[in-house]
Fold this protein.
Amino acid sequence: MLDAPTRVVVVQFPHWSSFAAALGRSARSAFEPIVRAVVAHVPLVEVTAPGMLVFATRGPSRYVGGDEPLAALVQSAVGDAVRATLAAARGTVIDHAQVAFGVGVADGRLAAGIASRHALQSGKPLVVPPEASARWLATSPVRALAECVEVIGTVIGAARAGVPGTHDVSSYRDVVSLLERLGLYRFGDVAALSEPDLIARFGAFGRDLSRLSRGLDRHPPTAVSPPPDRVCTLHFDAPVESRDAVVAASESLAAGLVDHLAANGLAMVRLHVVIDSDHGERSERMWYRSEGFTARSVVESVRWQMDAWITHDAPTSGVVSLRLSPEQMVVDAGRQAALWGGVRDGDRHAQRAVRRVADMNGAESVTVPAWRGDRDPARSFEFVRSDAVDLERRAEGDVVDLATGEWRGALPSPAPSLVFDASSNAPEIGVLDARGDAVMVDARHAMSADPSVVRMGEQCYDVVAWAGPWPVEERWWDPRRARRAVRLQLLVRARERAHELSSGSRSIAMVAVLERRIWRLAAWYA
Amino acid sequence: MTTELRTRLGAPVVRAPLPVVAPLSSLFAEGGLVRGRTVACSGDAALSAALALSAAATRSGSWLAVVGVPNLGVAAAIEAGVAVERIVLAQPPRASREWITTVAALVEGFDVLVVAPPSSLSQHDARRLQSRILARQSVLVVVDLPAVPSLGSSDVFASDLDVHADTVAWSGIERGGSHITQRTVHVRVGGRRCASPREDTITLPCSTPRLAS
């Protein structure tokens, strides 16, 4: 089989989890209507994470008459589903930036992922012609890797494979930072390097990086289709009515399948799950994990599929069979266990508890902080999905890299205990002067008047003291991503309401940020 | 042997209290957090106090789960002395039953849980969680966060200890100058498992920031 990338469509909602949080629903269940809107036109859609859909154009494109009509069809179907979701949630305040999405079509998952990010900004689907895909990717910045984690999968670097001596990379942040320090800013620069050199520098991930930069998919297409004995089916003696029973039953089936494949040195990256009910109803879905499925992730996929089926189709009888068929395999790079220096019982217990919770509510509901570094207090740490990190290794202390407080322009210590991201969940507040006008800051960072009152919803606070304004100018060289804001640290005192007894009016400290003439709450010292 | 016997009898195993950092430990009669207990933190410095209370435990190998605090400032946790490699953040669904199921699953693996209860949490579910905490010998720290809408208060829990932390002074900040350099907090520890309330005025963060290797 020719080693050519699959032409795919990527539909991406970058802020899906914050949107779901604003709706007060789990990211998964909120995403289900979107999935179904697309499945109505394209049967086998890969759901990689809430907010991310991928499918091959081959069949559907021919059916609707080309990539452009397909992209337009998907754009309108997803747009309708989003509007329906918003209409159903009337009453909750939703920032429309949270539901922005992009549809990208290109050869290879990475190129399509980047195309969808571009489409996000223009609001129109972006179709990269087949012959231009590789050239287009070569001119894209390597930074895009970090934005396409869900499409291409997490890094499996030298650290995880247990290769000593190679440069450890545990996240795309490391990869991008290393590439940029080497002077490789575009994928074309990386593609020009030889694969052995990349492997020497990046360990196991070097091979994937080389393939990705050349516009290929991370895993070469398999020449042989999986033999039928790897398809495992579980028949229930009597129809099973309970979701949990089906999920529990899938656990041993999944473990058996994954072990069987591992014994042959293989791991599956694409899995087709089919569930049949006693009345002949069927739910089928394609799942993708570029880092290879573990028994856990298979169970999680089954649970998601069962949830979706029960809530939206309401099957009329119990489940009689469950079939797992691996559709694409890769050679399993394996994972070397530590020779000594053990994992403590406590670490193992914690890891197990986290997995259980991830099974219940979705892996994105349990996160671990990873330092990223930024001036913005809400962005100096990113929250990494718990299934993307190895908690046991993390507990040994070798993966966490912290250099807190070293970022110029960051908030001074003591750090606020609650932080709000200006782009997603920061509440709007009013910072007013003595006359009741909003305080504004001019181009020279001088305030129009001293702040006197802070209004948050109904509550008014009197300003006792303030520090700043501290200017924040970011990426001024890039008009698209430039950010100009002003921060103000405020010490306020709640204004007593007439009917309340004096609660010993205490001072509260907060940080407000002014951006595009709107004041928002950036941090709260709780 | 005794441990095994106690387990068979269903009695909780008595384990040493979880350590607490120096200026706070003197406020606890046992010198630390007694396992199986529920501690309610209130006051304007409730979250900072909760993080300070759990810091020493994480540094001695315990895991900390922060549940339902949507915008935790991780830098503040690190300043409080929390070992960041043993901190996990969970955002369970807000409905009472699902929330409690999730937290109960976390109790199995975590020694310390800092939770901000949702407003929907029923007293019945809260008490069920507490009995789970007692059986598993973890410590539940409930924080009041009135600043965040849709969060409930710690009243639904029958707390063993009440920690009230109020800021009495912010130093460094003026009208238009400098910035906050230090926070002085008055902490009062009382409650039904506390024979005589103890109080002290301390500065936060009370330990020096620790950088992971």
